[in-house]
Amino acid sequence: MYVAQRGRGIVSAISKDDGVSFEIEAGIRVPLGDTYDGFTAFAPEIFRIHNGGYRMYYAGYSEPNRAFILTATSHDGFNWTKDSEPVISPGDSQFDQAKCSEMTLMALPSTDGERSRYRLFYEACDGTAEDERGVWRIVGRTMGR
């Protein structure tokens, strides 16, 4: 299991009793500190990709009022490489002018020979109120593999 740990980033935990309890493993899988996740990183969503590795989508805050959807890849689930640019940034649509975060991913049906596609649903804030708060919505985007 991957979870956010305040002040550190995203860490992993393992269960030895079929998910009744978990222990945090040593190390940080996705550390804080880059341009888009310097304030915090949380809400990881992981799935297996076609080459046998893993892709993680996660929310990153560059500051308390600015959130992005970021991604990282790993071949072993322990060592992750962050992509340098966000997958979705504030301002990409009228609904997410201030924040894009806390996503989930759903595989879409495909036919033989067709490239895999996914639907990413995420929390979006339009920033229309004081302190860049405003109306929060669930927004969706279709993405290719």
How would you describe what is shown here?
This protein is mostly beta strands. It has a single domain, classed as Tachylectin-2, Chain A, CATH 2.115.10.20. Helices cover 0% and strands 49% of the residues. The protein is built from no helices and eleven strands. The strands form three sheets. Strands 1, 2, 3 and 4 form a four-stranded antiparallel sheet that branches. The model has no long low-confidence stretch (mean pLDDT 91).
What structural keywords apply?
globular, single chain, 145 residues, four-stranded antiparallel β-sheet, mainly beta, Tachylectin-2, Chain A, 0% helix
List the helices and strands and how they pair.
Layout: E1 2-5, E2 9-14, E3 23-24, E4 30-31, E5 40-48, E6 54-63, E7 66-74, E8 81-82, E9 99-107, E10 117-125, E11 136-144
Quick overview of this protein structure:
With 145 residues, the chain is mainly β. The chain has one domain: Glycosyl hydrolase domain, family 43 (Tachylectin-2, Chain A).
> What's the number of domains?
1
Major beta sheet, specifics?
A: 4 strands, antiparallel
- Calculate the mean pLDDT score and round it: 91
**Count of helix runs:** 0
CATH homologous superfamily descriptor: Glycosyl hydrolase domain, family 43
> Alpha-carbon distance between the termini?
23 Å
What is the CATH topology assignment? Tachylectin-2, Chain A
Uncertain runs are none
What's the count of strands?
11
* Percent in helix: under 10%
CATH class: Mainly Beta
Radius of gyration: 16 Å
